Fold this sequence. Notes:
The chain is mainly α. It has one domain (50-210): dinb family like domain (Four Helix Bundle (Hemerythrin (Met), subunit A), Up-down Bundle), CATH 1.20.120.450. The chain has helices at 28-40, 50-79, 99-118, 132-147, 174-199, 206-210; strands at residues 2-3, 160-162, 172-173. The radius of gyration is 21 Å and the shape is globular. It starts with a strand and ends in a 10-residue tail after the last helix. The relative contact order is 0.17. Residues 3-48 have low confidence and may be disordered.
Amino acid sequence: MGDLSRGIPNPCPRAYSQPRMAPVGKPDDARVLFLYRTLDHRAVDPYASPMYTDLFAQFKKQLGQLDKWLVSASEYARSRNFDPNVFLTLRLAPDQFPLVRQVQIACDSAKLAVAYLTGKPAQPQEDNETTLEQVQARIQSIITLLDGVTSKDVEGAATRVVSQPRWKGEWMTGEDYFVQHAVPNFYFHLTTAYAILRHNGVNVGKRDYLGAQNKRPPAA
């Protein structure tokens, strides 16, 4: 991991930081200069970090929902007199990971995103869970980790250099990694975990997936 804040303009904001429009009717060289400044302004943009902290908060919320699904799975199994831990071995397709691995990877996706974007080392965790209670403990450990992330922790996150061993030397900026890899990877495995449970009879629906929302009352 490293930092790109020197020498290379930052990527154009995608979510919370709104790029300014190039002035209409100006010469082409002015447009180019203006665009360069727009791309480069993120290094000191005070509105850049909320994208990370807000989405980390959403990770935390969704992991909380996952924990609730596992509680429902345990209750469902006991109501039908079978071992709840059987759920950990179930999968949607023969070539997909079972539930336990889907949960582990969802947790790791959030944990590694924190590590790569803050520069703080990720604490290793053994993938040795064999019970729903152990899996839930892992989920809670990541929720605790996400609780501790502050806006200051992710300063400069967009310009960090992120690479992983399996990328064979290829790398991404922190922003591209977060938007294109970390977030969709987290939701891929979270959703697959949900689908495994739903497919096998656990009574969870869309409201259980979404969780609480910040809805406002109707306008007067």
